[in-house]
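Q: Trace token order:
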Amino acid sequence: MPLSRGMRRVLTLWAGGALFLLYAPLVIVVLNSFNVSRTFAFPPSGLTLQWWNAALHSSGAWNALASSVIVGLCATAIALVLGTLAAFALQRHRFFGRRAVNLLITLPITLPGIVTGIALAATFTSVLNVALSVATIIVGHATFCIVVVFNNVQARLRRMGTALEDAAADLGATGWQTMRLVTYPMIRGALVAGALLAFALSFDEIVVTTFTAGPDTTTLPLWIFSNLFRPNQAPVVNVVAAVLTVVAIVPVWLAQRLGGDIATTR
């Protein structure tokens, strides 16, 4: 049913207001990265590039960035393997308790981060007697990254069905040949999209990281939070936040583009 002109205007204003509330704070962060003042005052009293130069030579920020990238890549790799296997098991097989297993797999991403963090920290330190380190952060992040990959792959498997795989089997293809030549090309976009979203989710996670990181381990979100209110570091934090704001667009855009392009070819 076509909308009236008045209703279209109302919806346009509502959408514009929502987008403004979402992105105006990000614009302020980017502007503050060029602010001469060391505070978060707005509007900027002057513009400078000295904070960008300071961020470029900040060893703390670079070390934290390296830790975040390592954690994100490892957690994504674990999520790709376990999430894909779980998606195949639940989508291609029928067994008792299937819905319960599906619920258990997706539950970690619905739980509050602080609950997940407390549970993981207690398990590592009290039950397993494992020292908190980069490895414990990776395991903690993998618990919710698996859900992202699982949802993407399961949705793709549900949408594509089994007709082509059955046809390949009828023509004499082995299970490995069917997976390599038929199934994998059709789910490749879902795997890439799930991996990109999982990495982005891991990269900016702070709550779970706070509970699973050791005293000598700092990821970039933890570094930003610990330096946010230090007068000498606040402008550098603005620069790092501005860079992350721009960089964060890339994996989300790629995930949507890849998933959308392949979905339209089905």
Residues 82 and 146 are 7 Å apart (CA to CA). The radius of gyration is 23 Å.
